[in-house]
Every structure is written in C-alpha cells, then in structure tokens.
Amino acid sequence: MAHPGFFQRQAHARRNTILLVFLFLTAVAFITLAVCLVGYFVTRSESSGLAFHHWLLSNHGLLTAVTVVSLIVLGSLLRWVDLAGGGDRVAKMVGARPIDPDTRDSDERKLRNIVEEMAIASSVPVPEVYVMDGEEGINAFAAGYTLDDAVIGVTEGCMRRLQRDELQGVIAHEFSHILNQDMRLNLRLIAVIFGLVALAVLGRVLLRIGFYSSGNRSRRSSEGGGGGAALAIGIIGLGLMATSGLGILMGNLIKSAVSRQREYLADSSAVQYTRNPEGLAGALKKIGALSNGSRLLNTPNAAEASHMFFGAALSQSWFSITSTHPPLLERIQLLEPSFDGAF
After folding, report:
1. Phi, psi of 95 (to 5 degrees)
2. Which of 30, 76, 95, 254 is surrounded by the fewest CB atoms within 10 Å?
3. Using CA atoms, how far apart are residues 86 and 3, in angstroms rounded to an integer?
4. Which residue among 174, 223, 278, 336 is the active-site one?
5. Catalytic site residue 174?
C-alpha cells in the first residue's frame, strides 16, 4: 500500500497544474491588454482625449483586442493543425526514428520489451517506440493526443547507458505522462507559445515596413501623404514586438512551471507502477554523473519541445524559475526517503 504522502503529492501537483494553466491564459489576456495600450497611444490624437478604459470599449479598442486575440489563436491553430499527426509528428519533429519491431539490436529489444510490459501493466495500447540517434545524454519523451496515437521516444544514451530497472523507471515515468493526459497539455502549450511567437513575427514585419522603408516613405510624403501612416505602422510593429516578447517570456515561465509540476507527478506515479523507486533514482543519478546530463545537443526543435522531456533538454538556466524541470537532487531526495517502506 502506498504511503499517504505519495497520493498527497499527486493531488498537490494536479491542483498546481490547474492554477498554472489559468495563469498562462491570464498572460495571454495581459498581452492583449498591453497591445491595446500601444494602440491607444498611437491613435490618441484621433480619440479626442478618451481615457484608456473608454478607448478600450471604442471601435479602435475592440478592433485592436479582437485582432490580437485572433492572431494568437490563428497562430496557435496553425501549429495545432501541424501537430495533428500526434505522437508520430512530434517524434519526427525532434528527429527520432521508429524502432523496428523485429530489431536484432539487444538494447532496442530490451527497450521494446519494457515498453510492452508497461503497456500491459497499464492496460493501454502499446505505443510506438522511437530512438534519437546520436544523443548521448539520458532523456526520453512521450507524445500524442490520445492513447491510440501515443509514442515513447528515448535518446540513444538513455537506451545504451541505463540498466534494465533504471530504464524501466524512465519508461514508467513516460507512461505516467500518457495516462495523466500530460501529452495533450504539452501539445497545447507548444501551440499557444507558437501563437505568441507569430505575434512577434508580425511585429517585425510591421517594424520593417514602418521604419526601414525610408525611401518609399519619403516619396509618399513628398506626394502629399503616407509618412504619418508608415510611422504609425512602425510604432505598432515595435509595440507588438515588445509586448509579444514579454508574452513569450511569461508563457515560457508558466510553461516551465507547468512542466515542473507534471514531472513531480510523473516521478511519483512511476514508482507506483514499478514498485521500485531505486530504478528511477538510479537513472536520475546517472544523469547527474554525465557531463552532458540529459541535454540534447543534436535535436531539432529541442527548445520548443523542451518541456516534454524526462530531463532538462537545454543548458541549465541561471534562474531556476525558467527551468523546465526540478533540480535533479530534489527529485532524487523526494524519491528515496518518501518511498522507503511505502510498498
């Protein structure tokens, strides 16, 4: 029987995740408000000195707000559609290759056997298994929208370096992400962040049109107009870049916090599945002992998918608040004493 603290940590992680997703949506609202503030100052001369809250309800304000939200939603939807292929699409996005079910490689057979064992134990369809060749760090991911399109991928270092019980702990961790529907949440976060990035791209385009088309602007001005409009476009572009840049930062901060909470939940669930905390703890210790740890050095789109991995995929941030994963030592300490005698 599991120790009461085990289930308390699971419930606490779920509550925190709900709160953090709410904060992410709040950040999107804040970006919209910030862009509206830029629009207010740009059109202030045409607004007869309206206060900001009155301007916000005017045609100018409503149009600005609807446009910003539409751009974010459109960018997010485009990325969502791009990821509609589910786990297979994500695996290809990070350059992973599927493992042949009839492979003769002993490590690949061991990996497939462990995945099949965990699928049977979890009563879910066996996910497709992928490996990220050339990545010596120890890392893994689970991706997909549903149980039917889920995949599990591991780095070559994870497959080659870990003992069976350690690899089983990592795979159990990834099965937790599948069963707790973290995969869908992770894909949503990718899509929303992409929407904010699209807003920044639009800002750069408008900035170039407004400030770097000096020859055309001067010609239009000499013909009796256009200079003021071009300047306004440039200011709007600059405002979009500034506010969307802040939004991307906020989004990444919240994405990182969401990821950290889901990692705590997946660690504790992995122990519940395997009844062996030493396996997962051993894998984490090996990450700490490696010079590359869990970092991905040759993976495309690693930054975009960093929150989906078992360990920190990128170089460690100076500020822990931007880290997508809890500190290794903290994860190990939470595993070892907490589950002593728990099963």
Report:
1. 75, 25
2. 30
3. 35
4. 174
5. yes
What are the backbone dihedrals phi and psi of residue 299, each rounded to the nearest 5 degrees, phi first?
-95, 125
Task: Report the amino acid identity of residue 21.
Answer: V
Q: Is the pTM of this model over 0.85?
A: no
| Nearest alpha carbon to residue 170 among 118, 109, 94, 107 | 118
Over residues 146-166, the pLDDT tens digits come to 899 999 999 999 999 999 999
| CA distance linking residue 150 with residue 88, whole number of Å | 8
- Structure token pair of residue 35: 């862009």
Residues 280-291 pLDDT 10s = 999 999 999 999
- Specify the amino acid at residue 168: Q
The single-letter code of the amino acid at 230 is A
Q: How far apart are CA 10 and CA 57, in angstroms?
A: 43
**pLDDT exceeds cutoff 50 at 179:** yes
Point out which residues pair with 129 in neighbouring strands. 152
Check: CB of residue 38 under 8 Å from CB of residue 60: no
pLDDT digits (tens, 9 = 90+) for 23-73: 777 877 888 888 888 778 777 766 667 888 788 888 888 888 888 888 888
| Tokens encoding 175 | 């099965």
Query: Residue 48's pLDDT is what?
Result: 63
Cβ contact 323:316 at 8 Å: yes
